[in-house]
Structure formats: C-alpha cells, structure tokens
Amino acid sequence: MADTVHCDYLVIGGGAAGCIVARRLAERPENHVILLEAGKSDEGDPLATDLSRLEEQDESYDWGYQARPVASSAQQIFYNRARMLGGCANHNDCAFLVPPASDFDEWVRLGAVGWDYASNRGAFDRIEQRLHIEASPPGNSLSRAFIDACQALGLRELNLRETVAAGTGWFPLNVKGALRQSSSIAYLHPLASLPANLEVRCETLATRLLLEQGRVVGADTESGPIRSNAEVILCGGSINTPQLLMLSGIGRGPDLHNLGISVQCDLPGVGNNLLDHVAANLACELHAASPPWQLTPCESTALIRIDADAPAPDVLFHYVLMLRDKYSNVDHFSAIEHGVKLSPNVARPRSRGSLRLASSDYHDHPLIDLNYFSDAEGYDQRILIAGLRYARALVATPALAAFIRREVLPGPDVGDDDDWLDYIRASAETVYHPSGTCRMGAATDRLAVVTPDLRVRGMAGLRVADASVFPSMVSVNICNTVMMIAERAAAMILQE
Ligand SMILES: Cc1cc2nc3c(=O)[nH]c(=O)nc-3n(C[C@H](O)[C@H](O)[C@H](O)COP(=O)(O)OP(=O)(O)OC[C@H]3O[C@@H](n4cnc5c(N)ncnc54)[C@H](O)[C@@H]3O)c2cc1C
Question: Annotated catalytic sites, by residue?
Fold first, then answer.
C-alpha cells in the first residue's frame, strides 16, 4: 500500500478555479499545498495552450460525459468537460465578458450574502492583473458583417471590454497572441519554478474524501491517500465536485443509501440546481468560404434584451464562422461546404437540471439531466425562440444577406411558435456552462450545499470553490466568474 502523503491544504481539481486557489494559498510560505489534477499537464502542449488549435484536442483531453437535454427523451448530447491541468479554461473559446452587476444582486437575494458586485470587483481586478485580455477586433469581414447586421436592427456597437450591455461587438478574449490565458498558464507556469511549498500532482484522480468524526481530513487517490491538516478545497467543477461528494457519502441520504453508500452527511441539494446556458442554431449556407479567422471562429457577438423590464440582456449570441465543429451534436451539416451558425442562448435560464450517481463505482459517469425547457412559466423556450427569430431577422439584413445562400436549419418552413418549439426541443445545444450543482445559500436553506464562506454545510474542513457554487446563472460566459470565486475563496481562507 502507498505511504500516506501529508499537506496543509489539499485542492482537488486543477481547472479554472483550482489552479488559482492553490497558487494563492501557497503565497504564504508556511502553507504546504497540494493540487491534484486527474488529467495530464498542459505545459508544453500546444494543443492545450494555443487557442487556435482547440479543434485538434481529441477525446484524451476530455472526461467523455453525455447528458440528456430534455426530459422524456432518449436523446443524449456530448457534454465536454476537460480533463487536463487548466481544466475547461484550456478547452474553451476564451470569450471574456464580465457579468452585469444585477447578476450578483440575484445571488445575494438567493442567500449568497457578501457576493454582490462591489464585493466581487476586487477579485475580478486581481484576475485582470494576471491575465492578458485582448479587446481589439481581429478584422474578419464576415464577423464584421454580423456586427453591421446588428446595427441595422438598432443595436449599438460597444467595446465589450468596457461595457457589457444590450449591444453588439467583438468578443474580448483572454489570450496573449495565440497563448490562452487560462489559470494554469497565468498562475502556475512554468511548473518548474513554482515555490517549494506548492506541489502540483497531475494524472492523480481523487476517488473519495477521507472523513473522521464529521471532519474531512484528506482524500483517497488512485496513487494512495493524502491527508490535509487544515482543509480540503473541492475544485473539480460542476459535474465532478458533486460526484465526489456523493461518492464520499455527502448528498441526498435515500439516494446514497440505495446505492449502498454509507451516508455521512444528508445534504439533499448536492447535484440539484444544475444550471446551463441552453442554445439553438439558425444555420446558413454561404456563397463562398468564410475569410480565415485568426484564433477562433467565434469572434463577434450580440446581447439582446427581449423583455423590456429585464435587469440585463436576455439573450447572448455566439456567431460561429463554420458549421461543423467538434462540439456539435447535430449532424445535418455534412453536405454543406461553407456555412455560419447564429446561436442565441438564454442568458438567465430558469429551468433546473440534476446530476445523480449511476453507481457507487467512481469509474462510472454520473447521470446528467439538463432538463432544458422545464420551467413552469415557459420562459426559457419563449426567450430562445425570440432569439432565433432575431437571428433570422439578422440574416435578412443586407450586411449578412450578401454572404448567405440559404437558411439550412431550421429552414424557412419553420415559422409559428409550435414549429419553433419542436425545433428547439429536438436540437437544443449546450454552451458548456454547467454550474450550480453545489449552490451557495444561507445556512438555513436546506437545499444550499455551501454557505457564503464556501464551507460545505455539516462538514468541517471542507469547502467548494468552482462553478458548482453559483446560486443562479450569470448572463454571459462564466469562466471569469469561476476565477473570481477562486480568488475570493483563497482570500477568505488566508484571512482566517
Ligand atoms: C467547450 C467549452 C467552451 C467554453 N467556452 C467558454 C468561453 O469562451 N468563455 C468562458 O468564460 N467560459 C467558457 N467555457 C466554460 C468555462 O471554461 C468553465 O465554466 C470553467 O472552466 C469551469 O471551471 P471549474 O474550475 O469549475 O471547472 P474546470 O475548469 O472544468 O476544472 C475542473 C478540473 O478538475 C479536474 N478534476 C475533476 N475531478 C477530479 C478528481 N476527482 N481528482 C482530480 N482532478 C479532478 C478536472 O480534470 C478539471 O481539470 C467553456 C467550456 C467548454 C467545455
């Protein structure tokens, strides 16, 4: 049996959040910090670190999850989650929009006291001091045509680095040249120069938490146990963090019991409240190939307000200069050589999905139910259909019409609400923003998993700091909010 390894802080998961938490905790030289990452190192691997080579990442960089998009359907979609140092921040498109302040007002309303925008701003600033953000337009004429089309429909062009509001513009990107500014690259590289009190252990999967008398004291890994004197911080992301909690007996008691897992802490909220940005496509064939893009085929965007009284835009667009990409679960494009996708998503979805264990075996993938379009008011489907109708209006403007031969999906026959509804239910896509599965809330909230200081309720020595703690969805791409949570988590721990 492998010898037990000891540390003060054990950080599980070296993704967008975990790299920051570990690095910041190790800034105090007396802290011995171990960061565990199940996947390989990203250092020196251009497929992981160069944004323009994203399409070359194969399944060895991914956990290989599948998810059911809508209830009462057998359909599954690919639900990419990175398995490498840097996590999904090395798997993503590097779109960098800071959420509007109203998103955090909602967090506070839901019990996340102290997480208002003004209190978070310092942590966003610390990230932006560390990461290089590119705000200048890359200049592709087909991306420019999208912005012009939006302006023709009355949207103003914004510098989205400075103002995130209803409007259109170029996506700011967290890149330096083609080099991603993920948290592994910006906070840990070069690994050989890390301080001696910070150990990064890649290809080391944590399989179960070690518990002693209501306290978490470390974790079992595939290479042996690791004990922590101070705390364990879970940063495995919105799928793996609740999975590891449940495998360790922390979750909804009856479910764990049915799987033969001994219940250590009955926390019914673990795996509930799965949030995600749901999208659907208006896909068009082009007369000719798109002019080449520099780093990513997703350069320009629009934020649209559908409901006049909404606190922030209700729809965020991804406009993609190609039809086939490795993340697409729709295969209607094979006969089309050149195309674009206009992909609106619901910025603040109201549907809630869930995640459950399939078995007590850590090798088994969890069961992921996205439960899209399940909110009682029908808000999500109404907003998405409005976004798709807006996309069709954009394509009809002279700026875009000049490039477009025909609408391929859903096709001109789809016009009334029922047709649109059938279409979105059959073709719903994810923007890969799962969050909320260990949501933060007041100490009195039975379904909250962590309190506003990110401690797991009913368990000493354990915190969560990753996308799973979101109480509700933020209106834009979520990576910098996850990084903000990581910065604040480390600051809280160091302050104590
Ligand atoms: C395809 C795609 C495109 C995206 N595009 C954007 C974008 O353009 N802009 C944006 O803002 N956001 C984007 N996102 C979302 C963003 O990248 C994620 O929300 C963010 O990285 C989540 O951070 P996290 O720390 O919660 O989890 P992750 O970054 O997923 O990190 C979790 C890490 O923990 C490791 N891990 C898990 N379990 C264990 C275990 N038991 N033991 C050891 N290690 C473990 C995993 O391997 C992983 O490396 C995208 C995501 C994807 C997948």
Answer: 433
* Predicted TM-score of the model (pTM): 0.97
Measured distance CA(88)–CA(94) in Å, rounded: 10
The position carrying tokens 């494009």 is 333
Residue 69: inside a domain: no
pLDDT at 163 over 90: yes
Q: How far, in Å, are 217, 362, 461 from residue 212 at the CA level?
A: 7, 21, 10
Q: For residue 241, report the distance from its CA to the centre of ligand 1, in Å.
A: 11
Ligand 1 atom closest to the Cα of residue 37 is 44
Ligand 1 pocket: which of 207, 248, 479, 480 to mutate (most atoms within 8 A of CB): 479
Q: Which amino acid is at 411?
A: G
Could you list the residue range(s) of the whole structural domain that residue 408 is in? 135-172+276-432
What are 418-451's pLDDT values in tens digits? Answer: 999 999 999 999 999 999 999 999 988 999 999 9
What is the distance between the alpha carbons of residues 253 and 246, in angstroms, rounded to a whole number? 9
Number of domains within the chain: 2
Same domain flag for 371 and 483 = no
> Ligand 1 mean position to 490 CA, how many Å?
18
CB 295 within 8 A of CB 175: yes
Q: Which residue type, as a one-letter code, is found at position 130?
A: R
Determine the residue type at 327. Y
219 DSSP β-pair partners: 209, 226
Please name the residue whose Cα sits nearest to atom 45 of ligand 1.
13
Q: Quick one: 59 and 201 in the same domain?
A: yes
Contact 22, 86 (CB under 8 A): no
CATH of the domain at 233: 3.50.50.60
Q: Kindly state whether residues 155 and 220 are assigned to the same domain.
A: no
Q: Within a 10 A sphere around the Cβ of 361, how many other Cβ atoms? A: 10
pLDDT of residue 135: 87
Q: Are residues 489 and 372 in the same domain?
A: no
Map residue 460 onto helix, strand or coil.
Answer: strand
Q: Are residues 188 and 291 in the same domain?
A: no
Residue 282, domain member (yes or no): yes
The span from the CA of 269 to the CA of 450, in Å, is 9
What percentage of the chain carries pLDDT values higher than 90?
94
